[in-house]
Fold this sequence. Notes:
Elements: H1 5-30, H2 35-80, E1 84-89, E2 94-97, H3 100-105, H4 109-112, H5 126-139, E3 143-151, E4 157-169, E5 172-182, H6 184-233, H7 239-263, H8 265-269, E6 278-281, H9 282-291, H10 294-299, E7 303-308, E8 315-318, H11 320-336, E9 342-352, E10 356-365, H12 372-375, H13 389-393, H14 399-409, E11 413-418, E12 424-434, H15 436-439, E13 452-456, H16 460-472, E14 476-480, H17 483-494, E15 502-506, E16 508-509, E17 512-513, H18 514-523, E18 531-536, H19 544-549, E19 554-557, H20 562-576, E20 588-589, E21 607-611, H21 615-627, E22 631-635, H22 638-647, E23 652-656, H23 664-672, E24 683-687, H24 692-700, E25 705-708, H25 713-724, H26 746-760, H27 762-789, H28 792-808, H29 812-827, H30 833-852
Parallel strand pairs: 7-9, 13-14, 13-15, 15-18, 18-19, 19-20, 21-22, 21-23, 23-24, 24-25
Antiparallel strand pairs: 1-2, 1-5, 3-4, 4-5, 6-8, 8-12, 9-10, 10-12, 11-12, 16-17
Amino acid sequence: MRFSLRQKVVINYIIAVGAAVSVYVVESRYKSGFGITGLFFKMLILGFLFFLMQRELRHRERVEKTLRESEERFKQLVQHANDIIYQTDEKGFFTFVNPTVERILGYKAEELVGRSFLYPVTPSWRERVEQFYQRQIDERTPNTYYRFPLRRKDGMEIWVGQNVQLTIEGGTIVGTQAIARDITLRVQLEEELGRTRDAALESARLKSEFMANMSHEIRNPMNGIIGMTSLLSDTELDQDQRRFVDAIRQSADALLGIINNILDFSKIKAGKLQVESVDFDLCLFIEGIISLFIEPAESKKLELTSFIDPAVPPLLHADYSLLRQVLINLLGNAIKFTNEGEVALTVTCLYQAETYAELHFEVRDTGIGISEEARRGLFTPFVQADSSTTRRFGGSGLGLVISKDLVEAMGGQMGLDSRPGRGSKFWFTLKVERTRASLSKAPPRTDLQGLRALIADNRTTSSEVLSKQLRSWDIDVTEVDDFDAALNALRASANSDSPFDLALIDHQIQGRDGLDLARAIMQEKDIPRVRMILLSTFGQRPSEEAIREAGIQLLLTKPVRQSQLYDGLLNLISGQYSGKSDSTPKPMSISVDEASSSAGVRFNSSRLLVVEDNPINQEVAICQLEKIGYKADVAKDGTEALQMLDRHDYALVLMDCHMPGMDGFEATTLIRSRLDKKRDLPIIAVTASATADERKKCLQVGMDDFLAKPFKHEELSAKITIWLSDASQSPRNNNDLSDEVPHDGMTDVIDRLKELEEDYGKKMVLKVVGMFTPDTEVRIERIVQAIKQEDFKALEEAAHGLKSSAANVGATEIAKLCQLLETQGELGSIGDSAELLNQLVASWSEVRELLSQYR
């Protein structure tokens, strides 16, 4: 057991007193019999007492020395500390301050003792500091940290960071003790960092503004390219010319998409990329992308294939443009880094639920491959697989980074499997919504059921893709990979109960010409007549005479589109090309989609005004308007537009937003301020700055609608139809809606269906009507939910999608109501949306009844 110093002193005194009492007792009891012995005993006890007292004195000296040394060390520490150390009483007055205060603040310690701790605090901060420490006392917080400025004796200001501890005795706060450190340099560094951050934010703002301006400057010439190409495609062209024009247009569309994504790269990294989902047909979507790479694949003699598993829902709701950009990047890379072999795109379904599906996209090539070490930095900006890649293949190393970011922005994941010299496989998964039309399972195609087909192709992937597609239509398929095997298979089937009905022959089989195989089949008397289809690339397509001479009845250009394959086979088995006639029929070629000829332009009496400063865009707009039946005048800026409005009556204005001199915003504001009826003239904004802020600004100044450059004449036609139809005398977008919208648009639907039937045939119109009905039901339901939930973005998107499709079938009243609902969404106001929805439902009921009678 250990005793304190005080306890030891008490114990020693008790022992001494006890010893003295013992001596006294012994001396009293035995004073008559213990002379010398008693004296000796007494001396022994007194010596022992003296020893104890001496030991106690030495111990006290050691303790006092230790305390003095400890106090001296603490004093030295406090006196020479780099921080200000002080104590206050319960009222906050200094009771002790170490000498360091003179070095830091210029005050001597004695100048501050007795003063309030607020005395050196910068006056503008005293109230805040006092409130902070009063709260510490009220809440009895043991320790706090606070930073604030102090004013030195010479008037200069410094910053301190201060720890304050409450001094509590017997449950009562009797004062505080504190340590204050000079943090002036740290505060200055933080301020500098703040200024640097502000400068960086300003730089980012200027960068965004620059990117927006660049977007505008790039979009304008792209509008000219796409517009002129679209007009050229509507002239009389032969088959090859049409293919070339289509390739130019598709490439321009792809280039525009790439430009948009590169311009948005900073937005991706800033987390400002917006994902905007739309409904689309996946098969048409994939075929359109594949068509962009036919020419580069053929130039390198690569086999380019695509396959969509039948389990994948055909109609999806996802971000069309972002998905397109990812696939374009991956396919472009695959072809770039592949010198021989094949490039294949496949889409499979990993999981399918009631309202969504998880898809797996894969782009596989037989190219140079990527090492494990190179894969580590592959998704780093501006980094490629090795230092020689840029010299050999070009590129910035940005495509994969953008692709990965876009996939992740859509909620998916991207990965890579590759081996050097063995090719690469880039894949990504994506969860997409299913449209209502795709929820009801489409009846399987049974027109080709029961047929037997022979595929003669030595390219494994191409043969596999073709085989899977035919089997999905219940066709019995046999695959062979060389010339002799094909003949043997046909000979064997001749002796069976079910000979081959179809022979799909690749243009090259193990180095031999596919036409030679076709000729051999025709010359074999033991082989029953079989319908032969030649699969050829555009660049290696044989002459029509050679095809006829070999007995080929159908020519398909690779990569084969599913729709082309199905329609071609259906025509073959219909008897039109039965192959049983003695004379060989002229081969049918569906190597490109044939464009229907126009039924003739019917000019409208309404005259329009185009306000545009770019000469090329002026020409495009005038030609497009003439194509859809309107005459137009041109004004080069807002000032000229106002002058022309004074002299002429126009039915509608196409107003470019950004022009030198008076721009479209100022011109629109002045038109809306007029006192005559021209103030209500429909104005459609035409701008290359396709941003949400731009749309909002257009609506705020009084424009009625928005058309983003570059646009196609179909989009332009739909917009004008909405605003110039008899049922579409729409009010301004200030929510001052008319009380009643007349329901007299049925004639427009009938006329539009007849027009489409004349131009494209009844089969196509039936298909459009069949898709329009379920799609409209879905979009109206989305509008209902958006209004209930006050989801303005969803309302804008749903109304916008239905507006366009309604205009295409002539449902102008529905299109007009959707335009008004879209405007409500853009302005972030429910307004009269409920009333507009009631009118929309009533109008759709009439249109749906009319469409159901169309046969």
